[in-house]
Amino acid sequence: MAQNIWIQRIGQAFNCSLVGLIVSACGGASDQNSQPLIYGGAKTKVGEWAGAVAITLHDSMICSGTAVNPRLVITAAHCVQNMGSLTEMGVYVGDGVEGGSVRPQYKVVKRNYSPKYTGNGNDMAYLVLDKPLDLPAKAYIPILVDADESAKLIRNGQTSHIVGFGNRGDGGFGVKYETDAVITKVTDNEVAIGGDGKDSCQGDSGGPAYGKLPNGEWRVYGVVSRGGACGTGGIWGQMKANICWAQKDSGIDLKLPAGTCL
All domains of the chain, ordered by start, with CATH? Predict the structure, then answer.
């Protein structure tokens, strides 16, 4: 990463102030205040990637996330740790609004982050919602847990599709954007993605990375964690590393393939 500057990719709601262990670096359907670049990307089509949602605090977007079940959203641990009271957080579903000021449609009734989170690795958390998300079944992209599929999708040079509501190269924030970026490094439970102007940025924290299998089916596998200067690439946690913990701790059955969680 550029100049080894590592920042958690949280939103701009805190005006670049320190909150707990989190560094915010500025530069990063129904009643939803929505209007019909993630860094280096383009605006998603209306309703596209509906499972990519925004996490709010005091009616302002602070992070992105992935709905993996009508009641469960996956996001980054640093989006949850030391982040206000439970009643102050919410989830917004829609295409976004410039500036990131939205009324969430869903309340958070339970949250937790991985006990393995150290400030860098295992940067994953979950949010349990007060009611099921009003989304079509196709919005819930299957989580990548199969070893053979992982070998196809998580490898150097493979293209990843990233989505989020964060800061863009044009200076905007709060609208759902997408781009394709290349995987540059893989470790046991993290993936480095992007560079050459294709990247996540502040506000994309917790958002998804998707991969497309040769048969055309999509899988979700990444959770935005951290990175350097926007556009130089970032680090995504592999969702599968903590998904069994999330299922057990939340009490939400994610209907993972048999044998995934032993």
Answer: 1-245 (2.40.10.10)
Segment 42-62 shows an average pLDDT of: 84
HEC secondary structure over the chain: CHHHCCEECCCCCCCCCEECCEECCCCCCCCCCCCCCCECCEECCCCCCCCEEEEEECCEEEEEEEEEECCEEEECHHHCCCCCCHHHEEEECCCECCCCECCCCEEEEEEEECCCCCCCCCCCEEEEECCCCCCCHHHCCCECCCHHHHHHHCCCCCEEEEEECCCCCCCCCCECEEEEEEEEEECCCEEEECECCEECCCCCCCCEEEEECCCCCEEEEEEEEEECCCCCCEEEEEHHHCHHHHHHHHCCCCCCCCCCCC
**pLDDT surpassing 80 at residue 39:** no
pLDDT at residue number 83: 86
pTM value surpassing 0.90: no
pLDDT tens digit string along 160-176?
999 999 888 888 889 99
Check residue 43 and give its pLDDT: 61
